[in-house]
Amino acid sequence: MIPVQNVYYMLAYVFQVLNAQGYREVATESFDNAIELCSAILTKGVSVQLKRGLGREYIERKGAFSAVRGKINLSESIKEQSMLNKQMICSFDDFSENNYMNRIIKTTMALLLRSDLSKKRKKSLRKLLVYFGNVESLDPHRINWRLQFNRCNATYRMLIAICNLIIKGLIQTTASGRTKLMDFFDEAHMYHLYEKFILEYYKKEFPDLHASASQIPWQLDDNEDAMLPMMQSDIMLSHRGNILIIDAKYYAHTTQQHFNKRTIHSGNLYQIFTYVKNKEAEMTDQKHKVSGMLLYAKTDEVIQPNHVYHMSGNKISVRTLDLNQDFSIIRKQLNDIVFEHFPKLAK
Length: 347
What we know:
EC number: 3.1.21.-
Number of strands: 11
Enzyme class: hydrolase
Order of helices and strands: HHHEEHEHHHHEEEEEHEEEH
Distance between the termini: 35 Å
GO molecular function, one term: hydrolase activity
Largest sheet: 6 strands, mixed
CATH topology of the largest domain: Trna Endonuclease, Chain: A, domain 1
InterPro entries: McrC, McrC_bac
CATH architecture of the largest domain: 3-Layer(aba) Sandwich
Pfam families: McrBC (PF10117)
């Protein structure tokens, strides 16, 4: 079980805006569960956005009007016989806050009001919903999360991500009409958060490292690459010719049972080995070293993988990261990985 406060720290690395002054009070608050945490982040984020002003967009409106507005649609006016009521079918662009992102936020806040949330959180959400009076709700099961962000709406990026976490954490509504929440961060959600947290941690804390989630090209003897899967690394760290490829794994079980023996997940090991060997073959400079690591989130199982293997001239490590600790210890675990593979940075 990961302490809720550590979930906040992980989110703070993924969404750097949470380190801003406006979110400091959230960082110091104590939360009983993850839904309370995400609700607090959303409430604070919406409050900050309201001070800037809700984002507006030109949205096309169409309907029957007594006074002409925008373009007249004569064919539809005749078809609908709107002229009998002294009206015309018109279409025009309205500069409105009823855009898709605001609708997602309103839908999320409305769902939270139906959930098992504390009275304090619900009171704060109701106050904010007043400002969304002209914004329509969406069907939470049909939201399109593939949104485009730019400089005009960049402040919405974290808000929409938190909304995504909240809505996808919902389970079906009970007969009484109340919406309950499952273990809020299930394995699928935590897998993504865990991976992004590690990458963003290294980007922020080790600026001398080049940290990225780079693709690794297949080293082919010819140009035939039809149907080959993409090799997408989770985290790739590089510094002066040294490269460490990390595959972050968040599973309920860190090992697999094989003939009454616990072993590392074979598919994971094959994958990281393939990444390392193809990356090494890509490097033409002789002064380089490529290593790989499977970094599992520690579970409550008795046997935890913690091994170093030397395979075909490359170092392949299997480690666990204990997230059920004070964050200072988590920080040390992550730092030690860098110092082990990039000793010059330890000085």
